[in-house]
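re: the backbone from monday

yeah here it is again, tokenized this time
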């Protein structure tokens, strides 16, 4: 296997692992191929190799791929270095209790924002746009918009050269539209998603920052539109910013976790 071919194979395998991880119920071969842009035979060949390595499992009854046991073992070994969710769990729970909405922690992974923690609020009507493991491109959903908004301008420009959000997410995610929301997010300090991902489901998010001061994740809340009226959003924004500030301090090691 030469260097170029080997690198391509690794990148394809990684993209398929991410595709499978995005749905806890499992992903068919056809769906995995669609999500990664691979042909179905190529996707099946790589998925089968990952299964032999223990990184994936195949549910033969439903015909779907699931994350495998070897990933659990590898993840448990990596957890002490990367378990941001445990670091922030009580803050996310407190945010859900204070707002009544579903509250989330997500982390940046390259050009994506990945939900790693969900805590339910007390309000009975909920939005299910986000689950643990759900991925969105930066700029889509409130958490990803919050992260994108606080990158350096040059990084934002480079991102838009790589990514065309409008292709999948429609005209509301054209570059000009997203840049307008970036400006609004910077002005307010937090991002607002007015049902741009799912009709009737609103979200708000605030970025958290790593030890270098770069946006590495986000705290967010989602709920039904009636819970995000103009008069309530400033208070929700204040609670989000407080939670994001506390999580940032923990990530940066300024204060210990309670």
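seq for it, each position gets an aa:
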């Amino acid at each position: 296997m030469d260097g170029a071919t080997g690198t391509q194979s690794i990148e394809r395998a990684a993209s398929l692992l991410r595709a499978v991880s995005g749905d806890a119920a499992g992903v068919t071969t056809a769906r995995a191929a669609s999500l990664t842009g691979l042909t179905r035979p190529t996707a099946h060949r790589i998925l089968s190799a990952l299964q032999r390595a223990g990184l994936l499992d195949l549910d033969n009854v439903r015909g779907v791929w699931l994350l495998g046991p070897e990933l659990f073992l590898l993840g448990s070994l990596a957890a002490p270095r990367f378990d941001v969710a445990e670091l922030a769990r009580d803050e996310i729970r407190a945010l859900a209790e204070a707002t009544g909405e579903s509250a989330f922690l997500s982390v940046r992974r390259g050009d994506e924002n990945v939900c790693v923690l969900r805590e339910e609020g007390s309000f009975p009507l909920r939005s299910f746009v986000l689950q643990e493991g759900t991925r969105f491109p930066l700029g889509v959903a409130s958490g990803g918009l919050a992260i994108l908004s606080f990158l350096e301008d040059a990084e934002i420009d480079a991102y838009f050269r790589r990514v065309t959000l409008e292709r999948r997410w429609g005209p509301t995610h054209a570059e000009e539209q997203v840049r307008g929301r970036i400006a609004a997010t910077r002005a307010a300090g937090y991002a607002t998603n007015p049902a741009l991902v799912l009709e009737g489901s609103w979200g708000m998010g605030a970025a958290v920052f790593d030890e270098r001061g770069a946006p590495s994740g986000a705290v967010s809340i989602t709920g039904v539109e009636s819970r995000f009226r103009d008069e309530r959003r400033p208070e929700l924004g204040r609670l989000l910013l407080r939670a994001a500030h506390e999580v940032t301090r923990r990530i940066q090691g300024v204060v210990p976790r309670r």
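Residues 3-72 form a domain with the Arc Repressor Mutant, subunit A fold (CATH 1.10.10.10). DSSP finds ten helices and eight strands in the chain.
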